[in-house]
Structure formats: structure tokens, C-alpha cells
Amino acid sequence: MHLPDILLLILLAPLVSAGLIWLFGRRNGHLAATLSVGAAGIIAVASLYLLFAFWDGAVAEDMAIRWVTLGEFSLSLGFSLNMVSATMLFVVGVVGFLIHIFSLGYMADDAGKGRFFGGLSIFMFSMLGMVLSDNLFMIFVFWELVGFSSYMLIGHYMKKGEAAEASKKAFIVNRVGDFGLLIGFIIVFWTFGTTQISELAVAVGAEPELLSTIMGLLLFCGVAGKSAQLPLHVWLPDAMAGPTPISALIHAATMAAAGVFLVARLPFLFTVDALTIIAWIGVITALSSAIWAFAQNDIKKILAYSTLSQLGFMVAGFGFGSLYGGSAAAIEAYGAQAALFGVGAALFHMTTHAFFKALLFLGAGSVIHACHHEQDIYKMGGLLKKMPITGITFAIGVITIAAVPFVASGFFSKDAILYVAKLVNPVAFGLLVGAALLTATYMGRLFVVVFLGKPRSEAAEHAHETSWVMWLPLAVLAFFSVFAGYVKQFPLIPATLHPILYDAVPHPAGSEHTLLIIISAVAATMGLLGAFLFYRKADQIDPLQEKAYPLWVVAKSRFFFDEVYDAYVAKVQQRVAEVLSFLDALLISGLLVRGSAGLVGVFGILARTLHTGNVHSYVWWFFAGLFIFSLYAFGLLGG
Amino acid sequence: MPSTEELQALVAANTWSALLPEILLGVLALALLAVDAFAPRRQPQTLLAAMVGQAAILAWLLFAVFTAEAGEARVYFAGSVVQTALSDWMRIFFVTCSLFTTHLALVYLRNREYPRVEYIHVSLVVTASFMLLVQSGNFLLFFVALETLTIGFYVLVAFARTSRFSLEAGLKYLVMGGFSSGILLFGIALLYGVAGNPLLPATAVDPLNFIELGAFIGAVGIDGANAAHPLVIAGSLLVLTGVLFKVGAVPFQIWVPDVYQGAPTPTTAALAVASKAGGFFVLFILLSGPFLALESLLFPVLAGVTAVTLVFGNIAPLGQQNVKRIMGLSGVAHAGVLLLGMLAAYQVPWAFHAVLFYLLVYAIASFAVFEVMAHLAPDEDADQDISHYRGLLKRHPLLGSALVIGLGSLAGIPPLAGFIAKVLIFVAAFQAGLYTLLAVAILGVVISIYYYFGWMRAAVLRELVDDGESGREPLRVTIPTKVILVALALITVVGGIFQAGLTKLVGLS
């Protein structure tokens, strides 16, 4: 086996599966599920084999197939495997496979099973294609395909109006971001003359003064769309209308992290100013979504806002890590390693987040499944006794996201982000610690209300543990959530990824270390404990709403982003669209289309009258042509 | 009088083995007639042998080309025959076209009372002449090969001797073709005369030879450049007229719709594909060889011809209901695009390869369409209307999809191969700075989608109307036909997405 063959296998397995499902599995849900899970299994096995046993960690490029060549310009289809893409491959391979297995149980009785599993395979293909692409052109194509498959899967329950609306919203908001991304890519190509990422890195190294802040911010538009950063975050909570495995796979573990992946793939394209803005957007997203999570009663919406918040942490980690890594002090202390700090911090948190957030979502899925598709947490309660495996694994997920020191992978990764934020900007550090505290609190709230206390509804009363296909992935993910933080001590993370997930992650030392541990520990325990005390007695109504209504209203308002967008669409865009529609009817359809069709038709008739069928006239025609030729040749026509 | 030594040297240059494929095609053609005369009951086997024989010659040519070492042009017969990598490629192209034409002829002649073996005999002779034409190194072989194939076409066009349309088309083609041949010959004579004039600089010893003629036209004497000599100008323009007649460029396209409509479908296909390709290759030989020094004269003429060809070719098919006329008139538009590529080749070295790529893609798509046409043609072959295609996709999904893919490629709709072919030519034109013509061409493409769509719409959207007319009986599509259709459609689709194989074939990339 050669490296390109393995990569091709990984990439083609889901494509073949999607094709076969399209051909044979649309009516046969069982076949579709088998094909799709089989493809996911191939991906998981191949990528684990690749990362644990085959690949030596050296950057592998030049695996290109020439596609179009036009003189100087050539377009290749190429793969590349480096630390960043390998990390993503690992996450997508492992988490993707577990979620496929979970879906077998969750979607067992769904009427659109074939469509669902076909969509999953298309998603896996597009995601892996984007991860392995070696140039911007391909990344953009697969990026759009990822968006398309997300659109398709959000709208899976198409008979529900909410799902259809949500899929449209996700699609449109992402178009806004992707428009910026496309312009960004064009500017990059215009400036550096290549779309090949490896060549870009060299070109930027040679002429760093060509970089501009606007370029970086345009690229970040796409990131903000896909990774749901402010102000383009509005689609992700609504996307929870899709099936829960989709929320876990696409809207938490992988696709939503694609934005973070993109900045990690192209870290050299961002100027200091761009990085500062990006980092602050991350901080604001992390904090505000943590606030909004308090006013949500839908179990999946809470997790969605926590995803927003965690993505904010990653983006902030990338921004501050790169800023710190670029500073003179860091370069002196750590050498060339420092340049990777931003990428390392973001990717490490992305990896641990993928495990614990997939765990939380699948746990929520298990709960929803057991409660007959009830999603309101105030209609649950006391589920720990009824579903012990789900309850315990969910508790592990909560501890991990709350970042309890030493027993949670989330602790190590969040610690690195807090550390670089502290070094660059104390205010941002304070805000992020606040966000961490809030995270622990609202996750504590979720756990307390759902799993402790007494059942508050008929459905919760009769809930019981789900089948093994659903709890087994939970157990595996719980294991990963706890131990993946010990990168070097446990062989969960391939050794080939250690340079990026361990060496490139900035870790504090000495007294700094102790201080950060204390801060994290206090934030986590205070949050969890506070939640327990505050929500312990909760009944049908949220205690915050009862006791501190103004605060609840602020959280519930979600800072009016959706209202502002709705108003814009209804008042401004609608009017513009109406005017355009009128102009379209008048000018385009009326004058241009009808008019030109008529005009052209007249020309056609004229042209046809020339062909009289009379040989004599034909000969004269021929002669006329010759005559014009000779007029020209001997200077009688136009010189 | 040449000395004995000179004659011996001439004879020594007659390397007949270099022309073995053409000779074998001729032998095959004669053998078919002989076998059919003595064993008329064995006709199915004879026809099969015709296919197998051509396939064998094709295989041999392919083998020879792929094992040959790249090198200089090979010159035989004292400069009459010049074989280059490109001409070798064209020989393969023509044999392939001949195979398709033969298959079309078998489909066409299946239910008709015309002689079969004779049709294939003439078609093979025409193919061999095409192959000689693209190898010609002087006007002698050029004219003889051109006349042989044109005469063959007179027969093939008028082959449906009980059809009024076919006979009329044959007569029209004979008159117009004779006229054009006369003009061409007159041009050659003028060039021959002036190049042999000892008073002018660089007088040619053999004025018909392309290389010597090129040297003569390029020479500059005390009284001015030979290129400005009135006889050179007149002669070259007359020769050009003869070639433009072949490719169907405006204003010499007037014969196209009537002849395309009247001729039997396989002949129409051969005219549309082989004849056009041959014409363009000859144009390339002339423009890059003897007429190289005439760029300042010929470029504006060709540019004007290109513009009117593009405009006329795209407007004339509008509102046309007869699909054979649509193929003919839209073929004029394709000639315009190809001419644009020829003009770009003056500036951009790879442009002619793009022209070859276009010809290849055009041939593949056209044969797919003609195969479908041959299956749907009513008894009177000239009356093929768009209305016959109603509901074709439902009636016979394979024929329907092949038609849609073929037409889509001709219209240049992405992601089909025809789109890439157009893009390549347009990029070449852009690089050559031909912005105005490029704009006209792109506008033409937009219009062309309109008339191709009308045809496609009939096949895809319209319901089958049972009006009790003939041609509603089940379509008979044999397995080899299915294989051919699937292959053509597949190449067209795959070639649009991944064309490295095809571009390599024509020397692009």
C-alpha cells in the first residue's frame, strides 16, 4: 500500500457508498444503513491504521492528479497529509464511525432511513475531501459540498416546518459567510498567484508584506459562517431541528469545527490585526452564547449554545495563541515551535471537544429516544436511575466540558487557551474565565434537571436504557473524553500527532501552572456546585425565570440577533426583492427574453430566406463572396 | 529532361510502405466489390468483414503511432507526401470516422432497398483520400486527393436514388463542388505560374511544392515582397475560397442546408465530421506552410469570415424544424468557433491543438446524435423533424439520453466535453487578444443553446403524441449500437470532467 492509495480508499469509500445508496438503497433503509456504516468502518480502520502504523508524520504532498492545464495555469486535484489534516482525519474517522453506529439505533424506525444514511455518506465524503485537499480551489468545492450535505440533513424531517426553515436558514447564513470566503480566496490567488497551500506558505514567507488584514478577515467570514461565530451564529441553534446524530456529527464534532480547521490549515495568511479581531470575536462568542444557554429549555438547544461557546474558545485560542507565538518573547523561549501555538491550542481543544460534545449530543439523543422525542428538560428528571449508562456517561461529558482539573480532557485543552489569553490580554482572559464558569453552571443545570430529582412527565416516568448500539458509542466516547487529555500517557492519540497536539500546545509552567489550575478548579467546581444548589429543587418552571426574571430575559433575548435579522429581511430585503422582481418582470422577462427571442426569430427567418433551394442563386452567392474577397485584396474595401 | 540519376533518385523516394494503411483501405474497398459480385448471398459476412478490416487498419495505425519515436516530419515521394505526428493523428481520426460512418450506413440501409456494399466501397475510398489529403506536401497530391474524395461524396450524397431530395442534393453538391474545385484549381494555377517566374526573387524549381512555394512567397526582392504580388494575392485567396467551401464557412456555406438535408444520414455525418475536419487540417497546412508570409493579407479576411460565420451559423438554425438542417446550419457555427481557434493559432502555439481537441469532441458528440437520427429517420430520410423526437427519453431511454448528452456537448453545456473544448478555444482566443471575435463567439454560444434546447426539450419534456404516423413502431437497437452509444456518451461526460487522456491525445498539455 502507498500513502495515496490509502487516502484514496478513505475518500472513495463514502462516495461509493453514497452512490450505491442512491442507486439501490433509497427504498431499502436496511441496505443503506449497512452500506453507510460499512463505509464509515472502512474510514475508521484505514485512518487509524494510517495514523498509528503507517504514516511517519512527514508532510506528504505532491499527490496530485493534473486536471486542467491551460498554458501557465494548471489545476490539479491533489491530496496532502500533514499534522493538521491528520488530526482532523483522526477526529472524523473515530467520531464519525461511532456516530454511524449510534444512528443505527436512533434512526431504526425512521421512514427516510435510506435518505438519511445516504446523506451521512455524502457528508463524510465532502468532509474528508476538504480535510485532505491540498489547494484552496478544492477546499472551496468540498466546503460547499459540506454545506450542502448539512442543509440536506438538517431538513431530514422535511414534513416539520421548523426543520425546513432551519435548513434554509443554515444554507443562507452560510452563503453569506462563503461569499466572503470566496472573495478572500480570490484575493489570495490574485496576490500570491497560486492556490496550492504549500506554495502559498512559501510565497507568504518570501513576501510577508503582501498580506493584508482585509484578506484574513474575508477568509474569517467563511469561518464565522461554518463555525457559527458572531454575528453569523444564528443558524446553528436552529439546525438542532435535524436528527440528533446529525447534530452530534455535523453541528458539533466535525463540520462546525471545519472553520477552525480552515484557519489552522492557513495560519500564515493572518496579520496581527486580523488575529486580534478574530480572537476577540471568539471571546465574545464564547461568553455571550454561554449566557444565552441559561434561558434554553430544549436539551439540544442548550448543547447547541454550548457548542457555539466552545467554538468561540477555539477561535480565541487560535487568535491569542498565534499572537503570543508571534511575539518576540515566545520565539526566544520556544523557538520555531512558537509559531504553531495558535494552531496547537485550537486543534487540541477541537479534538477533545469533538469527543465530549459528541458524547453529550449522543447522550441527549439517547435521552430523547427514551422519552419518545421529548426535548424539554423540564419534562424529564430522575433519569439517572432509569438510564444508568446514559446518565453516567453524560455526567462524564458534563465534567469534561466543565473542565474539572485532571479528570477531564477539556481541562487540558481549555487550560492552554486560557493561558495564551492571559499572556496576551488580561481582559480577554477574565472574560474567558467567566465563560468557563458559566459553562460549568449551565451544564450543571442541564444534568441536574434532566437526571436528578423526580420525573416530571409520563414519558420520563417510563424511560428505560436504550439498546447497546446506542450506549456502546457513549461508553467509548466517555473513555476518550476522560483520557484523551493525557496525550503522551495514554496511547489514545496516535504518536504521529503528538507534535501538534502536545508539543505545539502552549502549557504554563511553575507558579503560572499552579495559578491556572486553581482558577480552573474554582471555576469548574463553583459552577457545578452552584448549579446543583440552585436547580436542585427545580420543578416545571426554570428557577432563574422565577427568581431573577430580568437576568433570564437578558439571556432569553439572545441579544436580539435573530430579531434584527428578521427585521432586516422583512423590511429591507423584501422591499428590494420586490423592486427587483418588478424590474425583472419588465426588463428581463419582458424586453430581453421575449424581445430577443422575437428578434432572433426574425433573423432566423431572414437567414432562411437566403436558402431558396435554387442552384443559380447559390452560384451567384458564391460569386458574391469571391467578389468581396477581391475587393478587399486589391484595396478597394477598407484599405 | 531530368537525367537518369535524378529519375532513379525520385523512384527511390517512392516508399510505398509509408502509405500502406491507405493502400490497404483501397484494397479492402475493391475486395468488397469483388466478393459481393461473386458471392452476393454472403453479404452479411462481407459487411462484417468491412468493419473488421477497418478496425484492423485502425489498430495497426494506433500501434504504429504509439510505438513510433517522436521525430522530424517524414518526407516521401519527392516531397508529395509529408507525414507528421499531427497528420498521423488525423489518419487515425479518419479511419475512426469511417468506422462510425460504416455503422451508420448499416443502420440506415437496414430497411432500404439500396446497395449496401457499394456504399461502403465508396466510403472507404473517400476515407483513404482524406488520409492522403492531410499528408499532402504539394498541390498535386492535394488536388488529386481532394477531387477523389469530393467525387466520392457526389455519389454518397445522391445515393438514395429513389429520393427526390437526395438526387437534388447530389446535383447541388455537384454543381457547387465543381464550381469550387474550378476556383481552387485556378488559384493553384496562378500560384504555379507566378512562383515559376524567373524574373521574381527566389523562383521555385517546383512551384507546386508547399515548402518551395512558401519560400517564394516569403522572399523579398528589389521591387518589393513577393507576398504583395497581385497574382500571389489572387491565387492564395482563390485557394482559400476552395478550402472555406469545404468547411462550410460563410459566404460559401450556401450549399450546406440543402445538401445535409437531402443526403442519406450517414453521408450527412461524414460531411459534418470528416469533411469539416479535413478542411480545417488543410487550412492549417496552408496557413502554417506556403501561406505563412501572407498573414497580414489573410488574417483580416479570415477574421471577417469568422465573424459572419459565427453570426450566421448561430442565427440560421433558429426556428428550423428539420433536424438535418439544424445539424448543417449549426455545423456552420461550429466552423466559426474552429476558425476562431485557427486565428488564435497565429499568436498562441497551442491553439491548433485546441482546434484538434474541439474536432475530436465535436466528432464524438455528432456521431452520438447521428446514431440516434439514423434510428429515428422515417422512410423519407430527408423528413426528419423535431416532432419525431417527442417523448424519446421515455420511449427509448438509451437513445434519448445519448441524444441529450450529444446535443448538450455540441451546445457546450458544462460539465460535458463540448464545454471544455469551447473553453480551450476561447482561452486561446483571449490569449491571442481577439476580444471582439471572442465576444461574438460567446454570444453565438448563448444563442446556440436556444436551438439545441428546442430539440432536447422535444426529447425530454414533450409527451409522445400518438398521431398514427409511421415511425411509431418499436425502435430496433442492436447490442453493438448500444455499446457504441454508451461509449460515446461516456466519453462525452467523462471528458468534460477529466480530460487529461483526450488532451494528451491531441498533444495539448
Task: Write a structural description.
The complex is a heterodimer of chains A (639) and B (509). By secondary structure, chain A is mainly α. Chain A is built from 27 helices and 2 strands. A two-stranded antiparallel ribbon of chain A has the order 1-2. In chain A, helix 1 packs antiparallel against helix 2 and helix 13 (299-326) runs antiparallel to helix 19. The model of chain A has no long low-confidence stretch (mean pLDDT 83). The N and C termini of chain B lie far apart (50 Å). Chain B has one domain. Chain B is an all-alpha fold and 509 residues long. Helix content of chain B is 70%, strand content 2%. In chain B, strands 1-2 form a two-stranded antiparallel sheet. Chain B has a two-stranded antiparallel sheet with strand order 3-4. The radius of gyration of chain B is 23 Å and the shape is globular. The interface between A and B is large, with 32 and 46 residues.
Largest interface by Cβ-Cβ < 8 Å: A-B, 32 and 46 residues
Radius of gyration of chain A: 28 Å
Beta strands of chain A, count: 2
Percent in strands of chain A: under 5%
Order of helices and strands of chain A: HHEEHHHHHHHHHHHHHHHHHHHHHHHHH
- What is the N-to-C order of secondary-structure elements of chain B (H for helix, E for strand)? HHHEEHHHHHEEHHHHHHHHHHHH
Integer-rounded radius of gyration of chain B: 23 Å
Question: What's the tally of helices of chain B?
Answer: 20
Low-confidence stretches of chain A: none
